[in-house]
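Quick one: examine this chain and its backbone structure tokens and tell me how the chain folds. Here goes:
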Amino acid sequence: KLSDWLKNIGAGSYEKNRPDMYEVLRPYMDIAIANAKRLDKQNEGRKPSESAPGTKVYELVEMLRPYLLDTQRL
């Protein structure tokens, strides 16, 4: 599915350890976080292990975001 989506946005296909994956996905970070928060709200009251689909990775991304390299400034 990821390869299909990447092809649809003109970014080629998915490959393990693809070095430019962060740059390709970075413009979609805000959308991804918003979607994850909405899903987390739907799973409210459940343990993360009981939330399918569901993830708490967005919390880590939000904490690390200030330290992420802004490749557009390079």
Observations:
- The CA atoms of residues 7 and 13 lie 6 Å apart.
- The chain has a mean pLDDT of 87.
- Residues 20-73 form one domain.
